[in-house]
């Protein structure tokens, strides 16, 4: 079994063990106060794991501890993985960033965009420029989520039955066709709106490769990188290692339904369908940190990873520049841009938490996150299973405490 293990003493790679202990103690308070079930945190420098802590329970009622081999629903941390898969096809010349989406998914031909009004009075017009693959990867496509409740197009998603981003009873192909029948919020490439775009990207991967998304990822990403537990379902052996998913209440936390993982899901979500262990996440982050190569296996050229982790927002602005929608108007978005499937720090002086220039990564709705700081050669992952009603504001503290541990 592949387990993430501490490989080196923190002092050997310029990290302060006492500062890392403070990090552990800070997050442990969340568990001790009943605000988190348990967690795993790993800090690596130069690719070597220098700090690894597990604390609390993966299943509170059963008294099962968080362990190194615990499986987590990583939700939106699936997006960078899907983006790497698309970049593999781009390097092979089978897909281009500037391909119109309609070239691969004809349902997106004759796309329309919001022009005003709401409800029965909502007006649309033809788009002035086509929706491109790069717009999907940068979330500048004009697509959205039904749960935002802040734009007339969001309401159309709810009316279409897309509250959870999947058409009930449908697969990825059918759901993406449902997206295509709805107008865009804005002209492609002009704004940023976190959305279902990576599901559309996942469907393009299926069409271009001729394989279901889960098979393509297993063959071209998971197996080459040695990510043995990563995937879209859990086996009988894995079931006992899967962490329970929790939601928060006024009185603490309680189990809530998660992704259906027993058996191959009908809907293969390129946006948020994956499960993984800390070892799997470490292997993936190492691929990115090493600019496309790991243990002699090269999936991407260095220049492609550089392109992926560069800000692609129009005007080279940060995420806060695009209004007050829920995914945008967060203090943590100051100084943070977006690349091809990952966020990217473009102005460290404006970020809420200490971050080096070019730091990139992404998070999942169940309070999982990873980031890589190339300026300090530090990689971090934090895994738990809590879908909070409001942000815990935990990530800024994690970043501050990690930065305080760097001694050189």
Structure description:
There is one protein chain. The chain is an alpha+beta fold. 29% of the residues lie in helices and 18% in strands. The chain contains 12 helices and 17 strands. It has helices spanning 17-32, 78-91, 101-104, 133-138, 152-159, 172-180, 197-209, 213-225, 236-239, 278-289, 302-308, 394-405; strands at 38-45, 48-59, 64-65, 72-73, 112-116, 123-126, 246-249, 252-255, 275-276, 293-294, 297-298, 336-338, 343-345, 360-364, 368-373, 378-383, 386-387. The protein has an 8-stranded antiparallel β-sheet with strand order 3-2-1-16-15-14-13-12. It has a 3-stranded mixed β-sheet with strand order 8-7-17, with no helix packed on it. Strand 7 (246-249) and strand 8 form a beta hairpin. The protein starts with 16 loop residues before the first helix and ends with a helix. 46% of the residues are buried. The model has no long low-confidence stretch (mean pLDDT 95).
């Amino acid at each position: 079994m592949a387990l993430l293990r501490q490989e080196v003493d923190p002092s050997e790679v310029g990290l302060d063990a006492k500062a890392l202990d403070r990090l552990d103690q800070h997050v442990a308070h969340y568990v001790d106060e009943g605000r988190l079930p348990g967690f795993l945190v790993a800090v690596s420098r130069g690719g070597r794991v220098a700090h690894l802590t597990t604390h609390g329970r993966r299943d509170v009622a059963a008294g099962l501890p968080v362990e190194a081999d615990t499986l987590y629903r990583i939700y939106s941390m699936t997006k960078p993985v899907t983006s790497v898969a698309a970049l593999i096809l781009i390097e092979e010349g089978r897909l281009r960033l500037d391909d119109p989406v309609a070239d691969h998914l004809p349902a997106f031909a004759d796309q329309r965009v919001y022009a005003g009004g709401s409800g029965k009075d909502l007006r649309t017009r033809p788009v002035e420029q086509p929706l491109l693959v790069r717009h999907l990867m940068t979330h500048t496509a004009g697509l959205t989520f039904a749960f935002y409740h802040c734009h007339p197009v969001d309401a159309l998603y709810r009316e279409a039955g897309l509250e959870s981003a999947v058409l009930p009873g449908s697969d990825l192909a059918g759901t993406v066709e449902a997206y295509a029948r709805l107008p865009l919020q804005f002209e492609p490439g002009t704004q940023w709106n976190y959305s279902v775009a990576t599901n559309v990207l996942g469907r393009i991967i299926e069409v271009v490769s001729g394989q279901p998304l889960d098979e393509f990822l297993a063959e071209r990403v998971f197996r080459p990188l040695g990510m043995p537990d990563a995937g879209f379902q859990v086996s009988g052996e894995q079931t006992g290692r899967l962490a329970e998913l929790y939601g928060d209440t006024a009185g603490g936390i309680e189990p809530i339904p998660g992704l259906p993982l027993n058996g191959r899901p009908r809907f293969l979500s390129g946006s948020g369908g994956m499960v993984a262990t800390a070892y799997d996440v470490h292997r993936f982050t190492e691929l990115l940190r090493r600019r496309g190569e790991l243990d002699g296996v090269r999936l991407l050229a260095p220049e492609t990873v550089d392109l992926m982790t560069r800000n692609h927002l129009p005007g080279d602005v940060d995420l806060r520049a695009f209004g007050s929608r829920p995914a945008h108007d967060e203090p943590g978005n100051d100084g943070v841009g977006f690349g091809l499937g990952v966020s990217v720090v473009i102005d460290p002086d404006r970020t809420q938490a200490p971050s080096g220039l070019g730091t990139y990564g992404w998070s999942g709705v169940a309070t999982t996150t990873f980031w890589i700081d190339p300026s300090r050669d530090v990689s971090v992952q934090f895994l738990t299973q809590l879908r909070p009603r409001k942000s815990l504001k935990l990530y800024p503290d994690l970043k501050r405490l990690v930065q305080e541990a760097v001694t050189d």
